[in-house]
Amino acid sequence: MKFTVTMKRNHEFQRLYHKGKSAASPYLALYCRKSRRGQNRLGFTVGKKVGCAVKRNRVRRRLREIYRLHEHELTPGYDIVVVARVKAVYAKYAQLEKSFLSLADKLGLRKKAEG
RNA sequence: CAAGUAAGCUGGACAGCCGCGUGGGCAGUGCCGAAAGGCCGUCCAUGAGGAAAGUCCGGGCUCCGUAGGGCAAGGAUAACGGAUAACAUCCGCCGGGGGCGACCCUAGGAAAAGUGCAACAGAGAGAUACCGCCUUGUGGGCCUUGCGCCGACGAGGUAAGGGUGGAAAGGCGAGGUAAGAGCUCACCCGAUGGCUGGAGACUGCCCAUCGCUGUAAACUCUAUCCGGAGCAACACCGUGGAGGGACAUAUGGCUGGCCCGGCCGUCCCGUGGAGGUGGCUGGAACGCGCUGGCAACGGCGCGUCUAGAUAGAUGGCUGUCUUAAAGGACAGAACCCGGCUUACAGGCUUGCUUGCAAU
RNA sequence: CCGGGUGUGGCGAAGCUUGGUAUCGCGCUUGGUUCGGGUCCAAGAGGCCGUGGGUUCAAAUCCCGCCACUCGGA
Model pTM greater than 0.90? Predict the structure, then answer.
């Protein structure tokens, strides 16, 4: 992921939950906030409620893959947090992908489609 | 063939494209840096489990404490013999229980060291006479006048029978007796001691004595074992900050109109928050062969190196094959080992038992 | 990684130490009182004591395994 660093600190997540814009679907919740950097910062939250370690890992890996494949479509300069909900465990990859893209559209993160 | 029982194996394979962690190589006069080095690119190798889980035991390792050891407290374990670094694990075996059987289950020391508890029911729960049975005394009733029968009150004997209970104090039979009673006898059961066999627990067509409620996963007693904490241990580096010392306290800067006042420097020592590095994987290791042992397990030889992350690397798409199905069994290393417990779609192998059929 | 606590009618709690009858408050149902409702009075229903085993004559209670929730420390 060329234009992205990961977010690790708890207080960074807390700031986004309180001050960022948000959008939600049955599978995911998305928080974002504009920053002054030239690159995006990305964080994932997969709570214990989702399931055991294997299930949490599977969801997180799928979400990271979705982000990686669509990174070039997003406008840089945002902090983004993706929160997985309980239903995400039972969702297929395509459903998660569709859900993520529609949420990104809602928050205006995607570049205008060119051509 | 069906039903069952025990043990073990497996937990998809291969290929392509994009992407990730670790280790190594190469290259660009690429980028950052004073340098060491780091980043980017590319190639190669490698990359979760049988339970990695729960964190229930045992050990290694590290630190703390301790001259060395003992006692107490607290905790754990509990037939016997062995295996092991050790264990509450494993193997063998004994006793008890279940099953037609293969086989399975078993916290299995001491109740005669002492204390406690045993509700309700029942006459009575180491203690007993409620009903009953028997003997006898007193005073009645009846008529068939007898060594008669009936019931009442009292004194005593009895543990056979009744009912209660989880349990009534060895069981059954015979003798015996007023009625009864291990009171006596035969058989059986149990306990203790001796003898026999066994390494031992234990055992027996043996002998003697005795007949004792249950509960210790109630307190307790006996024997054995245990110092405490845990890789967020621990060691090192450590912008800043707080502390101490040395130099300088002249000039300068900031606050300020000016004076007074306050703050600001460099080096060393030491503490050590955030963060970083080590600890970090070669080990009671794995595979094969030979060998000792009934087995657990041990010995010898040869070969192999096989995750090491730090918000945490295995994902996405596609094809082929095996398959009834792989799309969705259970499930993700976090210092490392030995066990235990729990979860698990299915598939496969072997031994044994019972039943049916055929030979 | 280490250590502790809780689970009992619909809700909140006692009972567990020292085993034998599951109790209390609110709520619920029915009846009465009232013109009607509340209050009050009387009666009643409702609990595999989280789950699976074991010890015991007998387990909510004692012991072991598991599940869920929760607290503390490094």
Answer: no
